[in-house]
Here is the input.
Amino acid sequence: MENYMFDFDGTLADSGETAVLATQATFKDFGLSLSSSDQIRGYMGIPIEKSFPLMGARADLPAMFTSFREHYQALEASQVKLYPEIKEALAKLKEKDKKIYAVSSKHSEALRRNLELLKIASYFDDLVGSDQVKNYKPAPDGINVLLERYGLDPKQTVMIGDAIYDIQMGHAAGVKTAGVYWGAFDWEAVLKQKPTFALTKVQQLEEI
Here is the structure.
C-alpha cells in the first residue's frame, strides 16, 4: 500500500471512555435517560449527528452536539491516549514515503486538536472530519474526498479502522481495508465485514 487512511478513535487512540462520559453527561444535561456504556460504544465510529438520534435524542439536537463537544474537549487531555507502538509505526511508514491521512467521524477541528495533543500531527499529510463530507460513515465520502483531492490510486489505498463502519466505508469507496483488533468493540463483527487485512498487532501496519 502507498496511501494509509486511518480512523482515529479506537484505531490511533484509546478514547472510548471519553466519548462514553461525554455522551452520558450530555444526555443528563438535557434530562434524557442515560445510555449504557456498551450501547454508546456500539455506535462509536459514526458521528454524533447519526448516533444521538439512534440513542433516543430528538429535540434540540444542535445544542446537544455543542454540549457533547464541550464535555469531550474538557475530558480529552486526561482521557485520550495513543495506543502503544502507534507513533513508531507512523514514523516507519513515513520513512518509506507512504502518504498518511486521517478520516474520522470527529469534526475536523477536534481531529486536528487530538492529533496535535498526541504529538502525531506531523505524520499526517491531510485529514477529513465529519464537517467536510455530505454523507457520514459508512458512506465513502471521507475517502473519496482524499482520493479526488490528491489523485490517489484506490488499489494502493487502505482504510484502517476498528469499527464495521470503517470497513463498510472502505468497501464503498473501492479501496483496500484493514480491521484492527486492538481498539475493536466487536472484533467478530469487524471480521464479518471481510476486511482485506485483519491486524492483531500494530506492527503489522508496516507489512500491508
In short: DSSP finds nine helices and eight strands in the chain. The first helix runs from residue 16 to 29. Strands lie at 3-6, 13-14, 81-82, 99-103, 126-128, 157-161, 176-180, 197-199. The first strand starts at residue 3 and ends at 6.
